[in-house]
Each structure stands twice: as structure tokens, then as C-alpha cells.
Design brief:
alpha/beta, 2 domains, 20 strands, elongated, binds zinc ion
């Protein structure tokens, strides 16, 4: 993560002039009652973080008992602190179905006399039905010269991955993008299957970044990722097959079947009614997600992917914010929403924003907390703070003012940019709300090397930083919940994708 002060200064100047234009005066600010920031305590945050991200909840994978158990635990915390249930049927819960489409266990894959198992020593990139029995040709790195030497029609084509990521793409995106695009080209040219062999760089990702491929695709029922189709297979293999895959005269055989089924995930919803007779009908929504990646392949002997930063930190923060509001409510109501199945494609927030348990137009702002306890203690980022992601000037101003007066984080300005290779803005629960024209921002301390690995453990979280991030998020929400006007929506707000 990089911080450039020049960007921030220019941006703050721009926002300052916007503030003047929107007429936010000192008088309006001073009308906000004294906040309850003292209720946000390091000890509570540490206890909740270690509980939610401990091995007991086994990584809280969406659609499993582990996610449900963690969700019941969260609801119990809400009950204990005095939040009113605001889910379905008078409970804290809003259950919904997620649909999973995956390759069946009986699917078979072999090259010569080597039997391979999807999810272990091979990954089939897309869960699609396929039945192939074809001679294998190895074409080196698949350069035009390599390909000119062979006829690939009716063959299974094996090649070694190569190349470096261009500046605008992360390696992970480059890798998956290239494997898919080039496989499609070869299949178009007559190949019946494409087999990628990892080089050194790709091997690193083969060992760590295959979680999505193991599990298959997820969506809400009826969504685009629930479609089952047939497709020539693209297979990804580890680097050590290079020794034997080059041998001529081998046959590639592949019988892949796909199954699709529904199972439940859950959002957890509580509220603290506002004190103003009129404004209590409007809600400031504090958002996070309780799920992570569950129990998966072991890395260095550890198979529990705890998701402490992602998103035990968000959970501990939102619980602390709920506690502060329960002790001292604001004029507007506070709505606390833990989203399920975020890691499977923002499914809980897509579901809740489409089926909110309060009138959608009564949600005045969404403040999302995602990964809030790593990296430099004095740096953080606010997603949704610059165009085209900026959808409410007043909301962003509240966050910047809260930071200036209280937490004084140096704000990163690169990760919220439309041209940032990670596309970070598109990867958490504020997004579905922003798409529905609800003012939305996300508080985050950004990526780190333990992201989506079993090393994302509670011991690695900077609790003091997390507490400060929580106070920043709380104070922003407190201001928004007490101001006379609801936050504006930027005219003609339109995301780049
Ligand atoms: Zn997350």
C-alpha cells in the first residue's frame, strides 16, 4: 500500500470547496449532540475479535453450520447489548438461499497413466460439463512459433504458463485472465481441451489462490452464475508435471459432470431506534460480513482459514458501534447488518439490499467495515471517496471531518481509484447499496500478504488500530444520524463497471 500526500492534500482541498458549496455550516455541525465514543473500548473489541475469528467457528464458511453458529453468536451479542431484532419474523435473522454449482466427485481426469483429481492435483477452471478423449500435444509456451509446428485440431493442448503482468493488472488477475483468454483462442482454433502447466510464478498461486476453483461457483438462485453448460475444459496443473507431460503419445481423458444445489446463508439484523419522532423513521446502516473461507487445504499445517482481518475486524467493530448506539441512541435509527456469504460474491448484501427489512428509501447511508486492523498503524482508506465511486459528498465529508478531529489517519487515495489494479471498491458489501443509489462508503485498512490464507489470525491484528478505525466509523455514523438533512446523492452517479 502506498500513500501519496500530494494526492490527499489536493483531494482535501477539493472536498473543502465542495463543503462550502453544499452549505454545511458550523452552526449545523454544532447542533449534533455529544457522542458516545468512550463506549468504544479496546478490551471489548479484542474479546469479540478473538471470539469470532477463533478456531471454534472454523472460518465461518457461507452455507455451513460454522457460519450459522457464528451468526447465532453474533445475534446473542446484539441481544445482550439491547439491540432490537430487525430481521424476519421478529428475529435477528434474515435467511436466504445461496446456489452452488460444482464439479461432481465422480468426475475423472487423466493424462497417460497419471490420474488427476480436481481440487487436489488439478483444477478445472470452469464447472462445466465435458467429455473428452483426445491425444495430447505439448506446445512449449504456446508462442506462434511453437504453435506453427503442430496441428492442434482435435487434440488436447498442453502448454506452460509464461509472461509478466502489465502494470495495470495484479498478477492474480493477469494469470486467470490470460489462462481463460488464451484457452478460448486455442479452443476456437480446434483444440478439444487446454491444459496449463504452472511456471514458478503461477505455482505460487496454484498453491494459494485456488479456493474459488475447489468450491465451484456461487450465486443467489437464478443469478448468472447458476447456469449449467457444456464447455471444452481448461485444466490447470502444478509445475512438477512438466517432467512427464512433454512425453509424446499420451492420451487426455476427461469426464466432468456438474451438480447444482441450494443451501442457506443468513444476514443478522438489529436496530437501535432513534430519539427524534420524525428522523427515527430513517436509518443509518452499519454493515459488515461475518463469513470467511472455512476449512480448506492446509498451509503450513493450518487448515482453518480464520479470516481475522477479513472480516473478524469488521464484526468486532460493528458490535462495538452497536453497543455505543444502544447506550446512547442518535436522532435517526441505527441499523446493524452483518451480511452472510460475502466471500461467495457479496450474496448477503445483494440479498438484503434487494429485500431490506426496513423501507429501502429510509436507509440514508451505508457505512461498511471491511478489513480494518492491518498495515501501518496510522494509515487507512475510505472507499467511495472519489469519483466515480463518490456517491455522497456530505457522507464523505462527515468521514473526513471525523478523521480530522479524532483519528487522524493518513488516508490512502490510490486504492479507491477507478484505475487501481485490485478493483478494491467492487469487493465488499457497500457495493450493492451504492448500485441502488444509496449513499455508501467503506472503511478499510486494505490488503496484506495474509489475505485469504490461514495466516489471517487474530494475533496478527493491531487492536489499537482496529479500535481507532471503529471510532472513526462510529463518529461518522453518529454525525450522519444526527444531522438535520440526510446525506445527498451525487447527481448522475455512475460506476465504471
Ligand atoms: Zn471481506
Amino acid at each position: 500500500m502506498k500513500f501519496t500526500s500530494a494526492h490527499t492534500v489536493r483531494f482535501l482541498q477539493l472536498l473543502f470547496s465542495l463543503t462550502l458549496l453544499t452549505g454545511l455550516t458550523y452552526a449545523q455541525r454544532s447542533a449534533i449532540p455529544a457522542d458516545n465514543r468512550a463506549a468504544i473500548r479496546e478490551a471489548d473489541i479484542k474479546r469479540d475479535l478473538f471470539a469470532i475469528a477463533g478456531d471454534h467457528f472454523r472460518g465461518r464458511e457461507a452455507g455451513t453450520l460454522d457460519e450459522l453458529k457464528a451468526s447465532v453468536w453474533i445475534a446473542e451479542q446484539m441481544r445482550a447489548m439491547g439491540l432490537e431484532p430487525a430481521g424476519d419474523d421478529g428475529t435477528y435473522f434474515q435467511f436466504f438461499h445461496i446456489q452452488r454449482t460444482r464439479i461432481t466427485e465422480t468426475s475423472r481426469l487423466s493424462i497417460g497413466n497419471h490420474k488427476l483429481t480436481h481440487g487436489q492435483d488439478a483444477f478445472i477452471l470452469a464447472p462445466a460439463i465435458a467429455s473428452v478423449d483426445a491425444p495430447l500435444v505439448f506446445v512449449g509456451q504456446g508462442t506462434p512459433e511453437d504453435l506453427a509446428k503442430v496441428d492442434i485440431k482435435g487434440k488436447a493442448v498442453a502448454l506452460e504458463f509464461s509472461g509478466t503482468a502489465p502494470a495495470e493488472l495484479s498478477y492474480r488477475r493477469f494469470l486467470f485472465g490470460t489462462m481463460t483468454r488464451r484457452a478460448n483462442e486455442l479452443i476456437k482454433a480446434g483444440a478439444l481441451a487446454v491444459i496449463w502447466v504452472s511456471n514458478k510464478d503461477a505455482q505460487f498461486y496454484f498453491e494459494r489462490w485456488t479456493t474459488g476453483l475447489e468450491r465451484g461457483r456461487y450465486d443467489l438462485p437464478g443469478g448468472p452464475n447458476t447456469r449449467v453448460f457444456s464447455q471444452a475444459p481448461t485444466v490447470w496443473l502444478p509445475a512438477d508435471v512438466l517432467d512427464w507431460i512433454k512425453q509424446p503419445g499420451q492420451q487426455f481423458t476427461n469426464v466432468v459432470n456438474v451438480e447444482s444445489f441450494n443451501y442457506p446463508s443468513v444476514n443478522i439484523v438489529g436496530k437501535i431506534p432513534g430519539t427524534d419522532p420524525k428522523l427515527k423513521n430513517e436509518y443509518v446502516l452499519f454493515s459488515t460480513h461475518q463469513d470467511h473461507d472455512g476449512v480448506r487445504r492446509a498451509v503450513a499445517g493450518d487448515s482453518i482459514w480464520n479470516g481475522a482481518d477479513d472480516n473478524g475486524t469488521g464484526c468486532a467493530a460493528v458490535l462495538a458501534i452497536g453497543r455505543a448506539f444502544a447506550q446512547k441512541p442518535a436522532k435517526r435509527s441505527a441499523l446493524i447488518v452483518f451480511h452472510g456469504a460475502e466471500e461467495r460474491g457479496l450474496l448477503g448484501s445483494r440479498y438484503y439490499s434487494a429485500n431490506p427489512t426496513v423501507p429501502r428509501e429510509s436507509i440514508v447511508a451505508v457505512l461498511n467495515g471491511e478489513m480494518m486492523g492491518r498495515n501501518a498503524p496510522d494509515s487507512a482508506a475510505l472507499l467511495g471517496s472519489q469519483p466515480p465511486h463518490l456517491n455522497s459528498v456530505a457522507l464523505v465529508n462527515s468521514a473526513l471531518a471525523a478523521n480530522q478531529s479524532l483519528t487522524k489517519f493518513k488516508l490512502d487515495t490510490l486504492w479507491d481509484r477507478a484505475d487501481h489494479p485490485e478493483g478494491w471498491y467492487f469487493r465488499s458489501d457497500h457495493l450493492p447499496y451504492a448500485r441502488l443509489n444509496i449513499p455508501a462508503i467503506c472503511f478499510t485498512s486494505l490488503l496484506h500478504p495474509d489475505y485469504h490464507t490461514p495466516k489471517d489470525e487474530p494475533e496478527r491484528i493491531n487492536i489499537q488500530k482496529l479500535t481507532n478505525m471503529t471510532r472513526w466509523m462510529y463518529l461518522t455514523g453518529w454525525t450522519v444520524a444526527n444531522r438535520a438533512e440526510r446525506p445527498d446523492l451525487v447527481k448522475d452517479f455512475k460506476l465504471e463497471r
